[in-house]
């Protein structure tokens, strides 16, 4: 049942991942992958695929304790990034601070949920680094999203972002796209932008903790299956048939910039 047919290609490339040939109806699965972080430490990344909901969830803890969660909703073409940042109690912060960033999921950003659900690891103890490092993408998140009303965008937003009610954001271009496709406007609130608030500075250069500023939060998906690899199988007549024989892994950074009413809510800008 779990056997994976596998033909070694002629190259020296080592293939780490195999496909389980199981029925994929309503399949959900979990994969734990050891991943090396940029500081050299190792974290365990959890990848969950739900082929019925057509979604993938990826989660890992950074060295500083921050929990990063990424959700891809293929049904709605929506992706969600969440950061649960440990607060500094001695600086009057709550136990943790939650941020949610919602944006459109492009095609071929990550492998389909059905392929993810069937992915198995040959050696779970191997520490992995991504084969391809993709450039960091910058997002200007100047629209606040009401999490209670966001079920219209994706059924997965509420569960992921209800801990970040006051800090769930999207881009104006994404909002316009969703409005054009019939989504109700009441869930969106456009926030002040640097152009509208003269003197709105980056939080990095603001000293007063109660002053509004433009905050940037950076996160990285350190390892994710971004492409399917195909191999060719030659039959006796020399005809080739291609079949899925592995994945390519990528890492990618994301910089999210958004308006925050108090620098107090953006203290990481100080520490960098
Ligand atoms: C979000 O929408 C709900 C339901 O309409 C409403 O009760 C709530 O006040 C809204 N939240 C914000 C921050 O506007």
UniProtKB/TrEMBL annotation:
Residues 202-270 form the Out at first C-terminal domain. The keyword Signal applies. It comes from the Eukaryota. Pfam families: OAF_C (PF22873), OAF_N (PF14941). Keywords: Signal. Residues 29-178 form the Out at first protein BRICHOS-like domain. Residues 1-28 form the signal peptide. Belongs to the OAF family. This is Out at first protein homolog.
């Amino acid at each position: 049942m779990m056997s994976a047919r596998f033909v070694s290609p002629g190259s020296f490339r080592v293939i780490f991942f195999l496909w389980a040939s199981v029925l994929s109806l309503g399949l959900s699965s979990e994969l734990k992958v050891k991943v090396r972080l940029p500081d050299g430490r190792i974290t365990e990344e959890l990848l969950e695929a739900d082929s019925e909901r057509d979604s993938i969830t990826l989660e890992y803890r950074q060295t500083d304790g921050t929990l990063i969660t990424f959700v891809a909703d293929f049904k709605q073409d929506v992706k969600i990034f969440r950061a649960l940042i440990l607060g500094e109690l001695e600086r009057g912060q709550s136990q943790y601070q939650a941020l949610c960033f919602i944006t459109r999921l492009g095609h071929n950003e990550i492998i389909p949920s059905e392929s993810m659900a069937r992915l198995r690891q040959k050696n779970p103890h191997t520490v992995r680094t991504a084969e391809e490092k993709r450039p960091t993408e910058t997002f200007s998140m100047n629209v606040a999203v009401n999490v209670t009303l966001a079920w219209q965008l994706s059924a997965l937003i509420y569960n992921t972002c209800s801990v970040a009610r006051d800090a769930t954001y999207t881009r104006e271009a994404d909002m316009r796209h969703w409005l054009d496709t019939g989504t109700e406007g009441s869930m969106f609130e456009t926030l002040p932008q640097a152009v509208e608030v003269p003197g709105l500075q980056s939080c990095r250069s603001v000293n007063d903790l109660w002053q509004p500023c433009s905050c940037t939060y950076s996160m990285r998906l350190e390892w994710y299956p971004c492409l399917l690899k195909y191999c060719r199988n030659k039959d006796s007549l020399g005809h080739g048939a291609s079949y899925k024989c592995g994945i390519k892994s990528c890492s990618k950074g994301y910089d999210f910039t958004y308006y925050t009413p108090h620098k107090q809510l953006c203290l990481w800008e100080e520490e960098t």
